Amino acid sequence: MRVICCNDYEEMSRKAAAVIVGQLTVNCGSVLGLATGSTPIGLYQELIDAYNRRAVDFSECVTFNLDEYREIEPSDRNSYHSFMENNFFGRINVRPGNTHMPDGLAPADEACARYEEAIERARGIDIQVLGIGNNGHIGFNEPAADFPVKTHVVELAEETRKANARFFSSLDAVPKSAITMGIGTIMKSRLIILLANGAGKAEILRRALCGPVTPEVPASILRFHNNVLAVVDREASSLL
Ligand code: PGA
User: Fold this and answer.
1) Contacts of 58 (CB under 8 A, 6+ apart)
2) What is the count of structural domains for the chain?
3) CB of 161 closer than 8 Å to CB of 176
4) Distance between Cα 163 and ligand 1 center (Å)
5) What's the domain range around 145?
6) In the chain, N or C: fewer CB atoms in 10 Å?
7) Cα separation of 36 and 47, whole Å?
8) Would you write out the chain's pLDDT as a tens digit for each of its 240 residues?
């Protein structure tokens, strides 16, 4: 794993964006795996700025998001569909038919199988962007007894629901389950960019990068991937 320590959130976002712009420059039809949450918002803004400067073209690229809540309408303002539309897709020239999100409304088995098949049909993910949860989750792969391999339905950890309650009217309004790419799905990506910023992520980043590889810290599995770029700010890297 290569760790790129940046001075601040802006530099982290800029460096990660530069890797994605480079990928799309050499292959405009690249397949991007995308994340939601606060962490990648700066990266998306950098990519939008690059698009506005005509430094990058998204018209041929294909995207797959990591996860979506279950039983939430795509049009709900808290759905990850809405997040991606507002923070990225609606502000670049990606084709709506080329963006993929897990279907939180379809029967679970069918939605999971369809998502795995769609990723395979696209010949896999070139660059997967990841944040890291306070409990070490990647996507919505929560700490567990083992590493889930494929796209699956997951009960959200209480800690995750509390962390995400800031976007909802109350904790009760946060969905209790979600559909997420599996750890195996993520690990098949050809390059993984792990982003982390802020002092609040320092301890979990230390456990993921320096502690034992264990499903109790799902992000620790990334140390078995041969092409991970951890792009982190000074605060998040303070305990490495
Ligand atoms: P955050 O979430 O970017 O909002 O900190 C990260 C995650 O839960 O993966």
Assistant:
1) 24, 51, 92, 93, 94
2) 1
3) yes
4) 8
5) 2-228
6) C
7) 15
8) 999 999 999 999 999 999 999 999 999 999 999 999 999 999 999 999 999 999 999 999 999 999 999 999 999 999 999 999 999 999 999 999 999 999 999 999 999 999 999 999 999 999 999 999 999 999 999 999 999 999 999 999 999 999 999 989 999 999 999 999 999 999 999 999 999 999 999 999 999 999 999 999 999 999 999 999 999 999 999 999
Q: 135: Cβ below 6 Å to ligand 1? A: no
Cα(39) to centroid of ligand 1, in Å? 6
0.70 exceeded by pTM: yes
Write the CATH number for 69. 3.40.50.1360
Active site residues: 67, 135, 137, 142
Rounded Cα gap, residues 60 and 210, in angstroms: 38
Residue 86 maps to a domain: yes
